[in-house]
Amino acid sequence: MAADPRDAIRKAAGALGFDACRFASAADPWGAGDRLHAFVEAGRHGDMGWMETTRDRRAHPTAMWDGARSAVVLGLNYGPGEDPLPQLDDRSAGYLSVYARGDDYHELIKGRLKTLAGQIAARTGQDVKVFVDTAPLMEKPLAQRSGLGWQGKHTNLLSREHGNWLFLGVILTAAELTPDPPEGEHCGSCRACLDACPTQAFPAPFQLDARRCLSYLTIEFAGPWPVEFRTATGARIYGCDDCLAVCPWNKFAQASQEGRLQARQTLVSPRLSDLLALDDPAFRALFTKSPVKRIGRDRFVRNVLYAAGNSDDPDLIPLVVALLDDPAPVVRGAAVWALSRLFPEGFATERMAREGDEADAEVLQEWRGPLPPLYGEGG
Q1: What angle, rounded to 10 degrees, do the helices at 296-309 and 329-342 form?
Q2: Which secondary-structure segment (H or E) carries 44?
Q3: Across the strands, what pairs with 238?
Q4: CB-hemisphere CA count at 13 Å for 83?
Q5: What does the pLDDT profile of the chain (379 residues) look like in tens digits?
Q6: Which among 90, 180, 230, 274 is placed 20 to 30 Å from 56, CA to CA?
Q7: Three-state DSSP class for residue 74
């Protein structure tokens, strides 16, 4: 009997540091494309225009590569080892999502996937393509189809072995590999993730409105936020772990053993006072190799200012006032809001000094009254 090529692939994946390796058909029909279409048609993708422009290619793996026959789905554990949510209690510190506290996982996984893909191509003699989150491929439905886990009511992937803390990578191949059994849904009546969301971003179980999600707002959205989300963000300045961290399945998760994914101490509860002082070179130095660097200094400091406005820390007032003159309008506008929260008695004086010289319409709106709830929503 010929050896099963999957055994060698799994062994090679483990040697490269992956914590899970499963196989799925890349050619069989699925309903994920219809769900994506409904998501975009409802406008729930917000400003992520790339989701609309690549919708047809995302609808199915073969829509992007008609030669795809099998998917090798890899998982890399980034579990924190303990519940990170108590860190939110310190309002003088910023909260960065667990996944962003170490090296950028895209770069870490991509190199390993390329190595494994080369080995698969050599073994099978068939073409391969590698994907890590940045290409138009829906990894989570493939992961569920492979049996690696299932998409929970929060739409994220979770597993019985690793909880909610898995990075995904996919290798598509023209080789016909026997698929693993798919994973069923094991959420039952639990709705912990839905109830934990600070912004009520889930219109219904298994549905997400990205426009209300703090991960979308802190990372993808470029402009000023509606007020309700500014107050709801608390100390969250990059991403949000609430729906992940409260899941009961995390009781089976283990702390990540991958050194490059270990949290840097400078990124665990960093002081808001230090972050408000970041100029562009200092921002780049602090977040070297980190996914945070991709959003840029201005958007990041905007996030920090919203957290500062929620901090009740008067020591931040001089730093906020200094940012009223920042070159970036999105920073100036966020500074106006933070000042109104931290120093309401001095707000009128600062407005009189600056409003007449302000040329940006959105910053002027902040001086005259911040954006109302659900500003800009539609669809």
Answers
A1: 10
A2: none
A3: 96
A4: 13
A5: 678 899 999 999 999 999 999 999 988 877 766 676 667 676 777 777 656 676 766 667 888 889 999 999 999 999 998 999 999 999 999 999 999 999 999 888 999 999 999 999 999 999 999 988 766 788 999 999 999 999 999 999 999 999 999 999 999 999 999 999 999 999 999 999 999 999 999 999 999 999 999 999 999 999 999 999 999 999 999 999 999 999 999 999 999 999 899 889 899 999 999 999 999 999 999 999 999 999 999 999 999 999 999 999 999 999 999 999 999 999 999 999 999 999 999 999 999 999 899 999 999 999 998 766 654 444 3
A6: 180
A7: strand
Three-point CA angle 341, 96, 290, nearest 5°: 130
- In 3D space, the residue among 22, 163, 141 whose CA is nearest the CA of residue 79 turns out to be 163
Q: Is 183 left (phi over 0), alpha (psi -120 to 50) or beta?
A: beta
Residue 89 is a catalytic residue: no
In the chain, the amino acid numbered 16 is L
Distances (CA, A) of 281 to 157, 165, 304: 36, 31, 17
Which residue has 């990041």 as its token pair? 300
Give the C-alpha distances (Å, rounded to integers) separating 298 from 327, 359, 375.
9, 18, 21
Catalytic residue among 47, 127, 133, 313: 133
Helix (H) or strand (E) holding 356: none
Rounded CA gap, 256 and 74, in Å? 15
12-45: burial string, b at 16+ Cβ within 10 Å, e else = bbeebbbbbbbbbbbeeebebbebbeebbeeebb
Tokens of 226: 């509606």
CA angle 160/214/193 to nearest 5° reads: 30
Strands 236-238 and 95-96: parallel
CA 245: distance to chain centroid?
14
Alpha helices in 187-295 (DSSP H): 192-196, 214-215, 227-232, 242-245, 272-276, 280-286
**pTM, rounded to two decimals:** 0.91
Which residues are within 8 A (CB) of 156 and not within 5 positions of it... i.e. 6 or more apart? 140, 164, 243, 244
User: What letter represents residue 57's amino acid?
Assistant: R
SS3 203: coil
Does the CA dihedral 324-329-330-336 come out positive or negative? Answer: positive
CA dist 166 and 174 (Å) reads 26
